[in-house]
Pyrroline-5-carboxylate reductase (Brevundimonas goettingensis), 267 residues
Amino acid sequence: MSGNGRPVVLVGCGRLGSAIVEGWLKTGAVDPAELIILTPSEKPVAERARALGARVNPPLEALADARAVVLSVKPAYWRGAVEPLVSALPEDATIVSVMAGVRTAAIGAALSPRPVVRVMPTTAVASAAGIAAVWSADDAARAVAHTLFAPLAEVVDLDEERHMDVATAVAGSGPAYVHAFTRALAAAGEEAGLDPDSALKLARGAVRSAASADPSETLDALIARVASPGGTTEAGLKALNQNDELDEAVEAAVIAALLRARELSKD
């Protein structure tokens, strides 16, 4: 997708940054010829992008006509990462932050007068199967985020910036919770007699099947479709959430992640 020759700059190419580049290359959401990647260390995806025409760590003069700058660095180090870039960026460049917990007010103060939009995508953007929460007080900046991420993810627009921390705790961290559950499910299968390989395949297959369910159906309806009255699934569900233990554990995980996101916002 062409940006009229004006490049998109990605600052940081760690796990999430690499996933974003993978998604752009897969979908064409960003033309590699219009992509600049700034990374302190060599990354395989950056080299693949370079082979397709992207520029990796060019002189800062190359940023002079950037249309968007995606900040994908560790929240604790973002100020040091953007400080050298400020004088090189045009004032109409949209700043897109995918950093957890860093407020638009802080980013805007460091990069004023450029508009800022926050996006919290999952790493599944690499395969164009992600989910991404978006917030900005600037409609044009929000539209830029949609252009960059809608081809890679289902985009959910949030009404208030404070909800970005909740989105981080639910969707940003959520895949790790699901992987942890899958690991526990596989371990339980192994404990009950399956060999490790079969247990893991069956656990992953169960989660994959659940994820492919019709999204128009309610979760209660999907559960009822599998859990026949008096059957094995119903018995398992009762044990899983005995005394609301499952609900409480998930709530505790979300709250812990939410509180950490708020701590990061104070750094």
Q: What stands out?
A: Strands lie at 8-11, 35-38, 55-56, 68-71, 94-97, 116-121, 130-135, 153-157. The chain has two domains: 8-162, 174-263. The domain at 174-263 is CATH 1.10.3730.10 (ProC C-terminal domain-like fold). The radius of gyration is 21 Å.
